[in-house]
Design goal:
heterodimer; A: alpha+beta; three-stranded antiparallel β-sheet; two-stranded antiparallel sheet; B: mainly beta; seven-stranded antiparallel β-sheet; six-stranded antiparallel β-sheet; about 0% helix
Chain lengths: ~120, ~170
């Protein structure tokens, strides 16, 4: 398990609450039995190295979870795993996009924030 | 940069579907410029409703960015978590209201989102990312940058929430 040490933490505390209906709990990836009235749900989360979505880890999953060898075998979500099989796929981890953005290499669309910076705001970086 | 806590107090979010313009009572966070980036490491929500309320909260990126975010007003806050850090906010924009147009949450299927639902009648929600596995916000490109904590479904009630992030 390459990503066992890279787990986040999710807590949904309904110990003093009526809790969530089963359909809502399932929609969010929670265990419905632990989101009812008087229950507390705790689970590990995994963050996709490509898109940064955080998913609640399903302990009952038997299918293999994907990881990316080019990202140090970090976890990638099912959607990003499927995208890797596209013919025109280009490996672009989130950190690469982050670095490109910070270095100014990426051309971004019109910048609405450029119009809304508060008076006196100065960029220092 | 240092970690900051962006907190919104006692608000009742309105249900807004993906690809629809938000109407208020949200927490919006984005980079100040194209060369800025943020890492969100924790989101917590505390229910304050007086009756059972399903808050279908979603942390999702914007398909159309906010235009005219207004400065935070009390009791909403955004400050450094370490008191020794300079209080100036650099590289990020945080808001709970706008003067011109609220953002539109993305409905792009390849854009990540976090479902953070809970019952606001006494419920508490908390998500913490492992260091290095944070939610990233890059520049001001749609669908991969500005993100909002808003309600996507349910019958929401009053709540408070905070987002802990670090700007670069």
């Amino acid at each position: 398990m390459f990503f066992g040490k890279r787990e986040g933490y999710v807590m949904v505390d309904h110990r003093a609450s009526p809790g969530l209906p089963e359909d809502v709990a399932r929609m969010c990836g929670y265990d419905p039995a632990l989101c009812r009235e008087g229950k507390m749900y705790e689970a590990a989360s995994l963050t996709c190295a490509h898109c940064k979505v955080a998913v609640v880890k399903n302990p009952l999953r038997t299918r293999e979870r994907a990881n990316c060898a080019k990202c140090g075998f970090r976890y990638i979500c099912d959607l990003c795993d499927a995208a890797r099989f596209h013919a025109d796929y280009v490996h672009t981890p989130f950190e690469q996009r982050f670095e490109e953005a910070l270095s100014g290499q990426v051309q971004t669309p019109a910048n609405p924030h450029g119009l809304i910076l508060p008076p006196g705001f100065t960029e220092t970086e | 940069m240092a970690k900051r806590s962006f907190a919104a107090q006692n608000y009742t979010p309105a249900v807004t579907a993906d690809n629809s313009i938000l109407t208020g009572a949200i927490q919006g966070i984005g980079a100040a410029a194209a060369a800025n980036g943020l890492l969100v490491s924790e989101i917590a929500e505390m229910g304050e409703a007086s009756a059972s309320s399903i808050n279908g909260m979603v942390f999702r990126r914007s398909h159309v960015l906010a235009v005219g975010p207004t400065a935070l007003a009390s009791p909403n806050t955004d400050g450094p978590m370490n008191g020794l850090t300079a209080a100036a906010q650099v590289g990020s924009i945080t808001y709970t209201a706008v003067t011109t147009t609220y953002p539109t949450p993305t409905n792009v299927t390849t854009s990540a989102k976090l479902h953070l639902s809970f019952n606001a009648f006494g419920g508490i929600f908390r998500w913490v990312a492992y260091p290095g596995e944070e939610w990233g916000i890059i520049g001001v490109t749609v669908d991969i940058s500005e993100s909002t904590l808003s309600c996507g479904f349910g019958t929401p009630g009053a709540m408070s929430s905070h987002i802990i992030y670090e700007a670069y």
